[in-house]
Amino acid sequence: MSISKKVDISVVVPLFNEVESLPELHAWIKRVMDENSFSYEVVFVDDGSKDGSWGVIQDLHEGDHNVKGIKFQRNYGKSAALQKGFEIANGDVVITMDADLQDSPDEIPELYRMIMEEDYDVVSGWKKKRYDPITKTIPTKLYNWAARRLTGIHLHDFNCGLKAYKNVVVKSIEIYGDMHRYIPPLAKFSGFNKIGEKVVIHQARKYGKTKFGLNRFLNGPLDLLTVVFMGKFGKKPMHLFGAIGTLMFIVGFGFSFYIGIDKLFFDRSAKLIAQRTEFYIALSAMIMGVQFFLAGFIAELIGRNSSARNVYLIEKTLD
After folding, report:
1. pLDDT for 104 beyond 80
2. Contact partners, residue 268, CB within 8 Å, separation at least 6
3. pLDDT at 178 over 60
4. Which of 132-146, 182-196, 207-221, 292-306 has the highest mean pLDDT?
5. CATH number, domain 7-232
6. 194: how many CB neighbours lie within 10 A of its CB?
7. Which residues contact 215 (CB under 8 A, 6 or more apart)?
8. Could you give the CA distance from residue 190 to residue 113 in angstroms, rounded to a whole number?
9. CB atoms near residue 132 (< 10 Å)
10. How far apart are CA 51 and CA 54, in angstroms?
11. Residue 2's pLDDT band (cuts 50, 70, 90)
């Protein structure tokens, strides 16, 4: 799909089984855009819905040609939906929001102003007052604390779906897995360092129920570690694995040297070197050191020769 018309704002809305909320969300976005005289497009990315959401998107497209649509063949997840939406987004500012009406389109004008006038690369929403259950808010607080410590980005709410980006930012990053939670770190590691935050209104869910299950408690931290590792060492894995491997090998060799000198000149007992605890520490450290070094070397080779990207099967599009 190719979109040549340049607009002020692209609103990318990933969705999965949100048939009830789509007409209301579209009307709300349209009202805000018309009141502020923005040129815009709304990109609905249907992540394999089974409840008739795509039919609603088709109807909205027929009545408003600012509405674009992508329908996945199956459910790939929010990150995949955002990635495909970013690929076709044509606005100077790209704004993401969830389809469940918990994000308010009334925030759009100020987000747009912060990008265009204050020259932020990314502006992340902060749902300071949340209407989520405690089973979601407590893990979210822990994730945000860990993300701040590991990434050095001082945001209160990394997982807020309401964010604004310069167009060049979304064209420069690739998200997959559950990395939609950590787009600001991905942007930072791509060289976009001016990242801001805005307190936004969080509304109680009006229709349906949350689509995220217990697996987010495991996937979230693992993806955070992946983001941090790829950002710091993705282009130079040998700097991490090689350094660890070299250090461990030196420690092991040092133990071996100590054992040998001790046996030759100081300990003349019948006790064999293989019966000493230090021998196994030294042997393990040297073996692990070599393994880490080889892991870094192989990672360097793969990184220099790999050009594979994730492939998502698109069933239908509207432009």
Report:
1. yes
2. none
3. yes
4. 182-196
5. 3.90.550.10
6. 14
7. none
8. 23
9. 15
10. 8
11. very low
- Phi, psi dihedral angles at 48 (to 5 degrees): 75, 35
Domain residue ranges of the chain, discontinuous segments joined by +: 7-232, 237-305
The whole-angstrom separation of Cα 73 and Cα 70 is 10
Residue 149 reports pLDDT greater than 80: yes
Question: In the chain, what percentage of residues exceed pLDDT 70?
Answer: 87
| Nearest to 70, CA basis, from 82, 105, 117 | 82
- Give the lowest-confidence range in 31-35, 84-88, 240-244: 240-244
Q: Residues near 229 by Cβ (< 8 Å), separated by ≥ 6?
A: 240
User: Under DSSP, is residue 309 helix (H, G, I), strand (E, B) or coil?
Assistant: coil
How would residue 97 be classed by pLDDT, with cut points 50, 70 and 90? very high
The sign of the dihedral angle between the CA atoms of 34, 89, 161, 8 is negative
Backbone region of residue 208 per phi and psi (left: phi > 0; alpha: psi in -120 to 50; beta: other values): left
- Element holding 28 (H helix, E strand): helix 22-35
46 token code pair? 């249907």
CA distance 72 to 217: 25
Cβ contacts of 55-61, under 8 Å, gap ≥ 24: 56/19, 56/22, 56/23, 57/22, 57/318, 58/318, 60/22, 60/23, 60/26, 61/318
Both tokens of residue 303? 């990184």
Nearest to 203 by CA among 129, 259, 255, 119: 129
168 closest CA partner among 79, 78, 94: 94
3-state secondary structure of 199: strand
> Max alpha carbon distance in the chain (Å)?
93
What is the distance between the alpha carbons of residues 110 and 199, in angstroms, rounded to a whole number?
A: 11
* Residue 67 to residues 15, 18, 61, Cα–Cα distance (Å): 14, 16, 5
Please indicate, yes or no, whether the overall pTM of this predicted structure exceeds 0.70.
yes
Which position has the token pair 């995220």?
A: 212
Please give the distance of CA 53 from its chain centroid, rounded to a whole number: 25
Find where tokens 């607009």 sit: 7
